[in-house]
Amino acid sequence: MSKLESTKRHILIIKKLRQAKQATFAEIAGYLAKESELDGYYDFNVSKRTFQRDVEEIGTIYGIYIKFNFSGMYYFIEEEFEPEVSDRMFEAFDVYHALNVKEQMSQYIYLEQRRPQGTEHLYSLLHAIKNQKRIQFEYTKYYKTHSENRTVEPLALKEFKYRWYLFARDTYDDHIKCYALDRLANLQILNVHFENTDSDWHAKFKHCFGIVAPNAEKPSEVILSFNSLQGKYIKSLPLHHTQQILIDNEDELRISLTIYLTHDFLMELLSYGNTVKVLAPQKLAEELKEQYQSALNQY
């Protein structure tokens, strides 16, 4: 049995349980047998013993844990994480699977040409956050020509627009700052413990868009009107988890958001051009008008 054959069988087992939610061994074995016939080259048929070994390897290699329900006599994937984390994990798994197909598929797959996101630091940073250990690294700001040494107390990680960011307390001035992982180098975990008193980051960013922290005492009630075509995209991929639909007809999609009026949010609205109109609050509409006028003055 080749390693590639085992890997393909692992992927098929995960796919079956993700689609069916639960399945008996007979159902899984039948599915694998059918896939063997369709493939025509690899043999995915398994014995009960081989399947048990596959279950263990899937947990070890992919961090996806398959459990057995003795009362129902079926297997299922244990959801250890919050739904959004599990969804992202399986999304990454799907991409990994698609990009590792045997056949040469480069002529059909077009990847965005962008710099590395700094994801190689994620595991070390999570370790430091969990164990409350100070870290040290070199950091380069866009408006400076040289890097600076930083010693910080790591608190949380956040993703935004294909980039990962670290929120940490700078030991130099005791301020919480945000660092882009792709501009971070020579990361070291120090054997210096700290007490993390800023733990509820989900609450801190509940009404934020992007990486800018709350800039007011309370979030604003924002009402936006999109044209009908753009509205379809907004419904399929909401701007924010607080998004509520107020009007949805052939003329417009009108939504409300409870959100802080940060620079990141303003830039997002500008990206929609004339397909969106700010109905409330008025100060956001005025700020958007100023940005458009400033851009127009350049031409």
TrEMBL record:
Domain WYL residue range list:
120-188
Residue ranges annotated for the WCX domain, each copy included: 221-295
Spans through the membrane: none
Q: What is this protein called?
A: Uncharacterized protein
Recorded source organism is: termite gut metagenome
The beginning of the lineage is: unclassified sequences, metagenomes, organismal metagenomes
